[in-house]
Amino acid sequence: MAVSSAGTAAKTVPDAPVLSDVMAELAALEEPRHREVNVKHGDDHGVNLSKLRAVAKRLKTQQDLARELWATGDTAARLLALLICRPKAFDRGELDRMLRESRTPKVQDWLVNYVVKKSPHAEDLRSAWFADPDPVVASAGWALTSERVVKKPEGLDLESLLDIIEARMKGVPDRLQWAMNQCLAQIGIEHPEHRARALDIGERLEVLKDYPTPPNCTSPFAPVCIIRYVSSARSSSSERCEARAFEAAGTAIRGLDACREPSVVRMSSGVIWSGAKVDLPLRTSETDPARHPRAFSSLR
To answer: Among 263, 243, 269, 265, which Cα is nearest to 254's?
Structure first.
């Protein structure tokens, strides 16, 4: 501990972490079992993400160190960089370059969700990436578009988005297909006027219909996802209306009816939707137990 000239003890200020020390710590966290699992999903690192987040929590925000970690090209180092960086400190060119350097799914996902979405350049990059010829870059544009569909749809041509999804989603590479399917589901969930068409497109294209999904998880198949989330929201809304109706006049039925649109959708996949109820077959490709899928994070 440092001592001042007046004899008063002063707190020692710790030195900023050295890149080599942080890299050594990440190397010590490497676990072959985690790497084996991650490689199956396209990610080339073996660091437990909970332990990685603990390192980031200790380091706190350090933009200079984040840039150094990113420059190593190491996947675990780049994930750590995205956790300790200052998102608004990156200029548009840096973010574009970082995305094009992000070739693993986890790095791309964290870059878009933890950094780009918080950047003042997010909308400009969304427009630029949306039609990029590189499907990995384009998938980031679609991910940002899904964000706008939910949070700021004003100015988006949802009909045109559905046109593009209908024409292209079936034949594009996996990561772009995943992002386009996410956008389709979000349009169906958030915008009732487009819900019937979103359900129809999903049913006809059957993208991710047979994606392995464990019990108690929602399939990424857009029609199932749309129906489950909408029906859940309606059920919650009905409960709120019921409580208000009891308080106001003791007529719960009126409160419930005010929240429900009378509608029935019968689908080829066996899903029947009526009001706030969803009936599913006991065993379908969407609900069979299987290994954990990629997280359909935006719809959780």
So the answer is: 243
